[in-house]
């Protein structure tokens, strides 16, 4: 079965850039989606189809996908960005990465 | 606007059953496939499967066969997740989530607020 690998945690100071990776075998050939999940709330889609942003999501959120790694980039990080982030794709079934906790220092 | 409103938290004893509802509004019910996602305490998101809102045909992920049943009541735009013979390890937050039926590899566009199911004696 297809496996997505994310770092458990990423820390960044406010105003800096956070990069969260999602590794998978030839993931660049698949469409990757990213979700922000804060405690007690429903997950929110922040990037879909590798690099597209849903309406209402700030331009600070961007994505890329090539080779064996997809990346979610959050520019000018704010305190409110602190959350768990999950990558997800379809491989005959839904697959989520293990999640990355973003800490804003 | 699209809304998914789930039923409230449940506390069940081992061996009992639970039925979680997910009421949809703000769109044509058959335009999106209804998925179910689980988050166990301290764990990540896990896809449980989905149900075709046009045909009612369910598809279950590995590990969610047998005790888990997806169903629909299209007359009230509501999807259901029933879990039987509950075990302590079923303790989790369960989310319903929508995928556009026109996008085979599309994202989960909308999510319910989640339902906490606690299994404890």
Describe the 3D structure.
The complex is a heterodimer of chains A (105) and B (121). Chain A is built from no helices and 9 strands. Chain A has strands at 9-12, 18-23, 33-37, 44-47, 61-66, 69-74, 83-90, 94-96, 100-104. In chain A, strands 1, 3, 4, 7, 8 and 9 form a 6-stranded mixed sheet that branches. A 3-stranded antiparallel sheet of chain A has the order 2-6-5, with no helix packed on it. In chain A, strand 7 and strand 8 form a beta hairpin. Chain A starts with 8 loop residues before the first strand and ends with a strand. In chain B, 0% of the residues lie in helices and 50% in strands. In chain B, a hairpin with a 4-residue loop joins strand 7 and strand 8. In chain B, the strands form 2 sheets. In chain B, strands 2, 4, 5, 6, 9, 10 and 11 form a 7-stranded mixed sheet that branches. At the A-B interface, strand 3, strand 7 and strand 8 of A face strand 5 of B.
Short recap of the structure:
Helix content of chain A is 0%, strand content 45%. With 105 residues, chain A is mainly β.
Topology readout:
The complex is a heterodimer of chains A (105) and B (121).
Chain A (H helix, E strand, L loop, with lengths): L8 E4 L5 E6 L9 E5 L6 E4 L13 E6 L2 E6 L8 E8 L3 E3 L3 E5 L1
Parallel strand pairs in A: 1-9
Antiparallel strand pairs in A: 2-6, 3-4, 3-7, 5-6, 7-8, 7-9
Chain B lengths: L2 E4 L3 E3 L5 E8 L6 E8 L5 E7 L6 E3 L7 E6 L4 E6 L8 E9 L9 E2 L3 E5 L2
Parallel strand pairs in B: 2-11
Antiparallel strand pairs in B: 1-3, 3-8, 4-5, 4-9, 5-6, 7-8, 9-10, 9-11
Binned, the helix content of chain A reads under 10%
Number of helices, counting only DSSP H or I runs of 4 residues or more of chain A: 0
Count of individual helical segments of chain B: 0
* Percentage of residues in DSSP E strands of chain A: 35-45%
Beta strands of chain B, count? 11
Main attributes of the structure:
heterodimer; A: 105 residues; mainly beta; 6-stranded mixed β-sheet; 3-stranded antiparallel β-sheet; 45% strand; globular; B: 121 residues; 7-stranded mixed β-sheet; 4-stranded antiparallel β-sheet; 11 strands
């Amino acid at each position: 079965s297809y496996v997505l690998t994310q770092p458990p945690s990423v820390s960044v100071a406010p105003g800096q850039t956070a990069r969260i990776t999602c590794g998978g075998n030839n993931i660049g050939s698949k469409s990757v989606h990213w979700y922000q999940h804060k405690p007690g709330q429903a997950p929110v889609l922040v990037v879909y189809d590798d690099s597209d942003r849903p309406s209402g999501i700030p331009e600070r959120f961007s994505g890329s996908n090539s080779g064996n790694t997809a990346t979610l980039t959050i520019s000018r990080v704010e305190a409110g960005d602190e959350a768990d982030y999950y990558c997800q794709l379809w491989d005959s079934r839904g697959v989520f990465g293990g999640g990355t906790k973003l800490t804003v220092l | 606007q699209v809304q998914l409103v789930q039923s409230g938290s449940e506390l069940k004893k081992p061996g009992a059953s639970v039925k979680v509802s997910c009421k949809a509004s703000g769109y044509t019910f058959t335009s999106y496939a209804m998925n179910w996602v689980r988050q166990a305490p301290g764990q990540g998101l896990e896809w449980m499967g989905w149900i075709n809102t046009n045909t009612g045909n369910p598809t279950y992920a590995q590990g969610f066969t047998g005790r888990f049943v997806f169903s629909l009541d299209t007359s009230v735009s509501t999807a259901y997740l029933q879990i039987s013979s509950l075990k302590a390890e079923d303790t989790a937050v369960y989310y319903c989530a929508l995928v556009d039926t026109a996008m085979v590899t599309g994202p989960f566009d909308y999510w319910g607020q989640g339902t906490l199911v606690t299994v404890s004696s």
